TrEMBL record:
It comes from Paenibacillus borealis. The keyword Ligase does not apply. One of its GO terms (cellular component) is membrane. The chain crosses the membrane at residues 12-33, 69-89, 95-117, 124-141, 153-170, 182-202, 214-236, 248-264, 270-287. This is Multidrug transporter. Pfam families: EamA. InterPro entries: EamA_dom (IPR000620), EmrE-like (IPR037185).
Length: 304
């Protein structure tokens, strides 16, 4: 992880990213196209938007080793699997329930970071995560349900959460030695190819969708992907995968509010209370990370 400061404060960038990704589930609910088609065009259009600005990174791409390319491919597969499972979960359960489960991502990230990178968290950071996750449970409490369809949606969301956690952990390793822009572009192209192969194998139509669907594909590429996923990938240069993944805890709040306003999905008092707990826990965690970074910065001059 790069210790230098970003040109824009990290908390502000996190807020922008949270708002952007909160629109993802809304656009998916609005679309009637297969989720594999939504995912493919979302990533394809994002890649096309990025390609004109990729020339400065051609040298870095040529310097990549075979191991780097294999890891990039693995990250792309995990990202495609995440979209396929999580987007599919929205066909069976509500926005609040699906995003609530997705917000458990930091648990998988923290476990994976400890196993792979020996990354430890302070007691206050763990407390912040616990508060936020407790709030997430409140958000989805009234909508988990016991029906077979809801259970299927929940399981798909769990699978998507595991996949995106693996994607972020691989990304943390790669952006330490390559530009985050190049990383995002290659991973998005890889994931789009995975979706294309999946659609070919399953005989899912590539075209013949109304103009409204194409508009949604573009919105999915610009809003939650460019201002969400790309931004979070860029933040991996300045924050750990565990910290970046904490942004997911803000998504259930934003997505649930948008679902209430735009889709008519009702929220209970417990869900509103859970939103407050989520933001409180996120604040505790980020404050803990800031203190840790300041301590590290203060110790650097004495390290030489």
């Amino acid at each position: 992880m790069n210790p230098k400061k970003p040109p824009v404060p990290v908390p502000l960038l996190m807020v922008i990213g949270i708002v952007a990704i909160s629109f993802s589930s809304i656009f998916i609910k609005w679309s009637s196209a297969p989720v594999s088609v939504q995912g493919m065009y979302r990533l394809l259009f994002t890649s096309l938007l990025m390609l004109p600005f990729a020339r400065p990174y051609s040298g870095a791409a040529c310097a990549l080793r075979l191991k780097d390319w294999l890891l990039l491919g693995a990250s792309g597969v995990m990202l495609a699997l995440h979209f396929l499972l999580w987007m599919g979960s929205l066909n069976y359960t509500s926005v609040a329930s699906s995003t609530m489960i997705m917000a458990l991502e930091p648990l998988f990230i923290m476990l994976g970071a400890y196993i792979l990178y020996k990354e430890r968290n302070s007691a206050s950071a763990i407390l912040g995560m616990a508060i936020a996750i407790f709030g997430v449970v409140f958000i989805g409490w009234g909508d988990i349900g016991l029906s077979a369809e809801n259970l299927k949606g929940d399981m798909l969301s769990v699978g998507g959460t595991v996949a995106v956690a693996a994607h972020l952990l691989i990304g943390q390793k790669l952006v330490a030695r390559m530009p985050s822009y190049l990383y995002s572009l290659i991973v998005f192209i890889s994931a789009a190819i995975v979706f294309a192969v999946y659609n070919l194998v399953t005989s899912t139509p590539f075209f013949n969708y109304p103009a409204r669907e194409w508009g949604i594909f573009v919105l999915l590429a610009v809003v939650p992907t460019v201002f969400g996923h790309i931004l979070f990938n860029w933040l991996l240069q300045y924050a750990s995968a565990t910290t970046v993944s904490m942004n997911i805890l803000g998504e259930p709040v934003g997505a649930s509010i948008l679902a209430f306003l735009l889709l008519g999905e009702q929220l209970s008092g417990l869900q509103w209370a859970g939103g407050v707990l989520v933001m409180a826990g996120l604040g505790v965690y980020l404050y803990s990370g800031r203190r840790k970074a300041l301590k590290l910065q203060d110790s650097l001059p004495n390290a030489s």
